[in-house]
Amino acid sequence: MRVLYLEMAFLGVGGFINRKMQIIDYLPADIEPVLVTGFDARPYIDLPRRLRYEFFVLAPSSDKPASPARQIGRFYWYHASPWMKHVNEMIRRYRPSLIHTANSALSNAPAAFEARRHGIPTVGYQKGFEYRGRVERFVLRRGWYRHHIASSNSVAERLFDLGLPREKCTVMYEPIEPPVNGWADGRSGDKTPVVAMFSILQPWKGQHVFLQAIAKVAKTYREPFRVLLAGDAPNGSREYPERLKALAAELGIADRINFQGHVRDVFGILAQTDIAVHASIKPEPFGRVIAEAMIAGVAVIATRGGGAAEIVHHEQTGLHVPMGDVDALAGAIERLLRDAELRRTLGQRAREFALREFRPDLHAEKVVALYRDILNGS
Length: 378
Known about the structure:
Largest sheet: 7 strands, parallel
Helix content: 40-55%
Radius of gyration: 21 Å
Distance between the termini: 17 Å
Number of helices: 13
Order of helices and strands: EHEEHEHEHEHEEHEHEHEHEHEHHH
CATH superfamily of the largest domain: Glycogen Phosphorylase B
Number of strands: 13
């Protein structure tokens, strides 16, 4: 069985790529994976040896303001049309048994449409929340996709609200490969504790809320602690990263913050982290960075909403705070800084949950079973 994995994303590497790389090595020998992306993913990820890989760089469209109709036109001419042509070429070259697309039903609709025209079933992975619009409803109701995989129950419910039949969607949490060197119980011990946030740098991810919370903690918690902020903005944009650095200076905490930029070895960061913070100000579809911290045995603070609330159980495997609430986030950070035993307990429970729920081998089994059901006509 040859499976063609398609990632159209023109903003750069996405969660689908990380997710798929986690399970490639767990696919049975009779499945031949081929990955095709709309950007060069090699600077961001390590590609498995058994994977065939090609990329097709989509030309950037104009970022000038435009009416909705003109924006749709730009999307079609700059992205959808060339991508459809490339998908046709990949179908002719590889003759896949099945196509698995990434991240969004709407953005990958051109590929699903072409696949159906060739009689090839398509599985759509839904990483994030689909927008509530007429076009999205149209795509989900047309049946171009044979089935959808949602990254959380929250993501699945959005699809159902848009008209997708419930029998056409399966929820599968993202797979996380545990760190090779295990985990360090107690983390810093007697050393200076480390508070870290690692995520793509975008305003909705809430790094500015995190910095404001750190500034509040610094005023009331007199013991030393260190802060790591890892991640970079999509497409190399410097606007938000520079805003964050300016905010840190304005708050008087610039000397406390270690801006690390893009980090490929997330578990290398987590190995020196005592408290991992998730500060999104909008509901998180799943929260991969949360899951990675949990599997590394790090105490997690997560904002309440979406998939994050599904995988972090308040006071059991982590702490919840309301989205955008600086005072609540500062209080949770200070609480964990003051209570090393609570950090250890939450981290250990989180790791037990993560090792059970995010197993790549189990995820691969479920995906392959779905493939076989589809190809067998089930």
